[in-house]
C-alpha cells in the first residue's frame, strides 16, 4: 500500500482542522478545552484511504504559543498542506510554519486556500499570486494550489482527487527501525500503547524493540496502522504499538524506540546550522532544541567561540543523552521564536582535537565518507569500530566494510567490523618483537598476545604474526609462535622454568595464569606443563589456582607438625603468628594436613592422635 503523511501548516483560525474534517469526517479538536476555545491545541491524527492508497493527516495547532506542538508533528511530514484563509491571506504563523518546514527539509508542498466563499473571484486570484510570490523565497516543490470552502462539497472532492495523485518520494529506507513517541497512554486489559510515525525501517508484530533511555528491550504485542490491526508497520505509517512490560509513566512524548545495538547515547551533538533571515545563534547560550517529537534545553557552543553566527558548525550540549543519527534534522528556538534549523553531522562523541573536529564536520557535511574515515582513524589509532556506521554515517555494515576495504593504508577486519591505520600494525609488531627479544623462550599463541593487547582484534594480531613469520622472525609450531633463532626443542626447558618459578615463590605462589603471562608462555601450554609437573610429583595442587613446589610443601608440612608438637595443636591463629601469609594459603596448607593419618581435625584445630604424641 502507498503511504504518505501530509501535515497541515498555517495561521490560527484559517480552517486547518475544519478542512481535515471536510475531507475525512474526522473531528480533530477532541478535548474540552479545544472545543471551548475553538482552536487546535495539540496534534491530531487521521487518515483518508482509497484502494491501495493511504493518506495520513497530521493536523497541527496554528497559535504562536503552540508552535512547539506543531514542530513535534512536523518532523514526520512527507508533504505539507499550507492552509491560507482567502479573507486574510498570509499571516505571521503562516510565515513561521513555512520557515520551519523549510528548515526541516520538507520539499513537497500543496496550498489550500480556504473560505473562498468569503471573497470575490478577483480577490481569490490575487491571493493565489501573493502566495506564489511568497513561496518563491523557499525551495519547495509546489504541487498545486486548490481553492476550497467547507460549504462547497465539489471543491472538497476536487481537493481529494488531487491529494490522491501525490506520491511519497522523500522517505528512503534506512538500516534500522526508529520511532519517536508523540502520545502514550494505558488501556485497561491491554497495557501501554504509544503512537508515532515509523521512521527508518519497518517493525513487525512480536518483534523485540529497544527503548534506549530506559536501556530496556520490549516486545510489540500488537500493531495498529490507522486503527486497523496489522502484522507490520512500514515507513511513513502512523502507527500505534502495544508494548509488553513497559509502564506508561516511564514514557513520554519525544522518547525514541528503536532496535537494540544500533544507537549509542551522547550528551553532545555536532551540527551544521542555518539561521532564519535576520537571526543569529549566540555562543554559549541556551536554546530549545527540537529533534523528532522531543524538546530539550541545550547549550549551543559555536566553533572557535565566535560570539554569534548566521550559519556554520556548532556543538550542542544537553543534560541528557541524545540517541540521534547522521543527517537528522533539528530546530532551535528561543523565547517562542524560531531561530535556526540544523542537521546532525556527528552524533558520536569522539575524543579528538578541535582542528580534527572541524575537518570531520566539513567532510560529513559534504558526505565525503572517505575523508571522514581518514580523520576518524587519525583520532582512533587503536581501531575505528564500524558497528556504529548505521548511526554515524547512515551506512549498513556491508557498506561500511566496503568503504573500509577500499581505504589506503588500513587493515579492515570484516568479522569484528573494525578498521586500523597501518601504523598501528607497526606498533603491534614492535610489541611482539620486544617480547621475543627479551625472552628467547617465549612461546605464545594469537590468544595469548590478545590478552596483552586487548583492544586489537584476533584477525589484526594474526596479520601481524603472519608478517613476522614471513620475515623469519617467528616460527609457528601448531598454534604457537617461537623465536626463529632458537632451533632446539625447549619444551623440557619450559618445565624447568615453571618449576623453578614456583620454587622461588615458595609459600606464596601466584596464580598459574599470572606465572604463564610473566614467563611469556601460552596459557593452554602452561596448563599442560603444570599437569606434567604434578604427575611427576614436582608440583602439588592445593586448591583451585594454588600450586606449590614439592620442596616448599615438604618444608611447610614439617613446620606445621613442629607447631603441633610445641603448642599441642595448630589452627589459623598460631599458624599465622609464625607464618604471616594470606589466609587462603594458610587454610590450604592446614587442609592438606588432613591427608596424614596421624593428624586429626578437632573443631578448627589439628592435633596428633594420642598414639603419635
Automatic annotation (TrEMBL):
Major localisation: cytoplasm
Subcellular location: Cytoplasm
GO CC field: cytoplasm
Domain Tr-type G stretches: 1-171
Gene Ontology MF annotations: GTP binding; GTPase activity; RNA binding; translation elongation factor activity
Gene3D superfamilies associated with the record: 1.10.10.2770, P-loop containing nucleotide triphosphate hydrolases, Translation factors, Winged helix-like DNA-binding domain superfamily/Winged helix DNA-binding domain
Pfam families noted in UniProt: GTP_EFTU (PF00009), WHD_3rd_SelB (PF09107)
UniProt cross-references to NCBIfam families, sorted A to Z: selB (TIGR00475), small_GTP (TIGR00231)
Stored PANTHER family: ELONGATION FACTOR TU-RELATED, SELENOCYSTEINE-SPECIFIC ELONGATION FACTOR
Protein name as annotated: Selenocysteine-specific elongation factor
Organism ancestry: Bacteria, Pseudomonadati, Campylobacterota, Epsilonproteobacteria, Campylobacterales
Gene, per the UniProt record: selB
